[in-house]
Amino acid sequence: MTPGATSAPARGPVTDVVIVPGAPLLLPEYRGRAAVAPDVSESCVEAVRSAVATASHVVVVHATDREPRSTRPPVGLRVADHLLAASHLDFDVEHVAVAWDATTAECVALGSALAAEGQATTMLVVADGSARRTEKAPGHLDPRAAEVDDAIVAAIRGCADGGLARLLDLDPGLCADLLVAGRAPLQVLAAAAGQVPLVVGSLDVSDPFGVLYVVAHLTRAT
Amino acid sequence: MLTFRLGSREFDARSRLVMAIVNRTPDSFYDKGSTWSEDAAFDRVREVVEQGADIVDIGGIKAAPGVEIGADEEKARVVDFVAAVRAEHPDLLISVDTWRASVGRAVLEAGADILNDAWGGADAELVSVAGEFDAAVVCTHTGGVAPRTRPHRIEYDDVVADVVRSLLAQADRAVAAGVDRSRVVIDPAHDFGKNTWHSLEVTRRLDELVALDWPLLVSLSNKDFVGEALDLPVGERLTGTLAATAVAAWHGAHIYRVHEVVETRQVLDMVSVIAGDLPPARTARGLA
Predict the structure, then answer these.
(1) ipTM for the complex?
(2) Mean of the pLDDT values across residues B92-119?
């Protein structure tokens, strides 16, 4: 099936989780003669490819755009579709949008509904950390960014020990201040897969432009 | 869409190529003999290649009036040099600025790709030689003046019309003489047979020459029309040259014969990016 198409849900237990940034610079339409973050891009493609190879039912969880000024689909959705297409694999895909400012309770409700039984599913979560990590960052420096970002990374890194549930502790107001675009999708993930025994397959953390990028592939513990 | 060929390479209408001037002369107006010695000329070629020039244009006779240089002396200045440049730079496009068919034959035998006939077909045999070697030829508009003469009191009813008529006639003649259609380049030749008003009008209306659908070369670098436009002497005309270059590039000219490669390359790339003919080098602003 082509990316962007939405199938009837055949989703089931999450067996693979992929977390990627929702940065527009990952999209071909915004690429110049040279990629500006080739490592991040390659890491995303590889994480998605390996996950989809295992579980070809894909649920994309992305946030709505915070300040939409166009009629185009949210950037997170487009990044996910691009990465899925770049996997050159066959998959069924379902897109789940969560409002960027959804309450934690709304995220939990949405995530719980996704945690149903059925076929093995890859959950592709488009989520960034703070865009206020440095003075040159899009949102300039906010000294509170590091602590929140560290908590996000620690929660993902600790997925084998129930760490994902700690994503529910992220404060929506603070995250909004810190331009953490991935807070709501991460909380949907926490609710959907918090009880699933996952281990870290790969985890790359970087902030080449002052925005926290997490590229992670979490796999079902065997 | 227009495609054209130089040497073994093919280009399209969106191309903006830098042709770097390499003078084998002791007296050219801009460099005043700085590459007269062979070592200096080799260094100049290496430098412009490093700077991103697509073509070198090697000339053995300055354009302005001066001591007469016969064909043998001209050959002595350029032929072996062309062979040596070809040996060192197998993929570099080599043009030679000459109006003489005998010199053209010698440099094509030595490995040149392009004959830049800067004097508007003064030697009618030149295009036949180009055709014989499947070389490219640059046709230029000089208003019919003899080689190495300055324009004096020339007037046109419509300078662009005269340029178009002359260049189309020369291009047709080149094709008839055996030059491949895709290897004929036209050049309005700023300052040649033109006062400053003429060169400015040609620049302003360059789109009319682009519309003729031949590859278009412009030679603007540090010329008098720039100097008179800004009242600046040779040596202080780079900014004006680059402004004219940007205008020519926006109109769609394809080849730029220049002294300053780095600055020209940046201007051409910038115009290409603005025009949408070339993606920006890298884009992260607002996209992280």
Answers:
(1) 0.89
(2) 97
